[in-house]
Amino acid sequence: MEIIRVEGGHAIGGTVHVSGAKNSALKLMAATILAPGKTTLQNVPNISDVHVMGKVLKGIGATIEVVDEHTLDIDTTNVDSWEAPYELVAKMRASTAVMGPLLGRFGRAKIAMPGGCNLGARKIDMHILGLEALGVEFDTAHGYINAQAPNGLTGTTVTLEFASVGATENLIMAAVRATGTTIIDNAAREPEIVDLANMLNEMGAKIVGAGTPVVQIEGVEELHPVTHRVIGDRIEAGTFIVAGALMGNEDGVTVTGFSPIHLGMVLKKLELMGIECERVEDGVRVHRAERIKPVDIQTLPFPGFPTDMQAQVMVLSALADGSSVITENIFENRFMFASELVRMGADIRIESHHAMIHGVDGFSGAQVTSPDLRGGAALVVAGLVADAVTEVSAIHHIKRGYERFVEKLQGLGAHVEHATVPDPVED
Ligand code: EPU
Fold first, then answer.
1. In the prediction, which pLDDT does 332 show?
2. What are phi and psi of 148, to 5 degrees?
């Protein structure tokens, strides 16, 4: 069994460069379906979720050439299938992002129903309702969603009940090839959606308003392949910033490769906690906080506080000089990480979607299990400040979204390593 072992208590310093954004790259890869020909994506993170999306695309007939570690040539000329199979959707829900582009290009898609995941039920009803409004007919059988637009896609106004990232993206990717104009009202505003709209516009789409709650898409006849660079990963950046706030040396930790404006609410909350976050070119330099102040946080769609930073910031709150409340509004099951942090000595009580956190003086290193991607990364970060050794298992979660996490932390001087230990449940 592979684990990450962290010896706590060692200061870190220097510069770490973040990779391209996972949640952008996955959708940009899916969007290449819309432009027959060879699209080149640069700054693609080398993480397991990207490998899964590569398999989804190859499965429908695309070819992918790895030009270098972070550059992919994706040729979708010969796509001749419309199916995202269960094996891949079960591994990664974001595989459902091919639904919009397949409908846009071929008017049909067959997608395994995603089911729940360790963040909760995670329905896709809003994707379906929105696409139905554009003229898509759905039926489900044998665990698959069959989607067809017998009369093509027709632009209309879709009001989303909640500003869902995935629904906004699937709707944009279908609407770019619809007849007429589509308006998405209460659209999600995440930077990854702006990145997607930018690439689609470079391909010839006519999208205005991405990054605002009202996105207008005028359908076009065809899209052409382009070369596009994925934006930097704001969540990976935020994770290293939290590490720097906990253990940064006197020169601080500089995190580059992303736009600080994409992390606005996180930086604001960190500053309220007494953590100095200096904007530098292409990133942020963070200094270790002498004393962390408690602050209340609630997760919200962008530009609110991202759910993907909730666990990492809870590590800081758990060491604050007082009590904080963190409210999780996006996912029903995102506090599993807190029980692991309690094993390290944190004082956290969960009531429904609120976490009541009473700051303690320190963590004690322990064996803990990654409950999910962000929670796993947060446990490694907690290990940096804990006494003795922390061993984090189930690290496949971390590999889904953090490229060379251990090596990047080592580059900052952290005492962290991959290790193999016997699996306790195997003979
Ligand atoms: N929801 C519905 N019905 C829908 C769609 C969403 O009820 O049709 C609910 C979900 O169950 C959830 C909430 O709405 O409770 C938000 O879901 P959203 O669609 O906004 O999220 P997502 O597209 O499934 C993306 C990211 C997540 C990130 C969220 C929120 C990708 C691949 N995933 O998920 O990233 O937390 O947006 O910002 O882009 C991660 O990277 O660790 C991660 C989980």
1. 86
2. -145, 145
Half-sphere exposure of 313 (CA within 13 A, CB side): 34
**With a 6 A CB cut-off, is 23 part of the ligand 1 pocket?**
yes
Three-class SS state of 10: coil
**Residue 426: its pLDDT value, please?**
67
> How much is the pLDDT for 123?
86
**Residue of the nearest CA to atom 21 in ligand 1?**
165
Tell me the pLDDT tens digit for each residue of 399-411: 999 999 999 999 9
Closest residue CA from atom 15 of ligand 1: 331
H or E stretch at 115: none
Distance 26 CA to ligand 1 centre (A): 13
Q: Which residues contact 256 (CB under 8 A, 6 or more apart)?
A: 15, 16, 17, 18, 280, 281, 282, 283
Residue numbers of the chain with a pLDDT score lower than 70: 116-117, 121, 426-427
CA of 231 to the centre of ligand 1 (A): 19
* pLDDT at residue 427 in the model: 54
Asked whether the beta carbons of 158 and 130 are under 8 A apart, the reply is: yes
* Cis peptide preceding 85, ω within 30 of 0: no
| Cα 68 to middle of ligand 1, angstroms | 30
* Lookup result for tokens 């939290």: 242
Q: Within 13 A of 259's CA, how many CA atoms are on the CB side?
A: 9
Please give the mean pLDDT across all residues of the chain.
Answer: 96
113, burial (CB in 10 Å: exposed 0-12, middle 13-18, buried 19+): middle
Q: Measure the CA angle with vertex 151, ends 146 and 156; round to 5°.
A: 95
Q: Confirm if 47 and 22 have CB atoms less than 8 A apart.
A: yes
Q: Is 17 exposed, middle or buried (0-12, 13-18, 19+ CB in 10 A)?
A: middle
Ligand 1 site-directed mutation target among 29, 131, 165, most atoms within 8 Å of CB: 165
Residue with tokens 């006849």, as numbered in its chain: 221
List beta partners, residue 248. Answer: 12
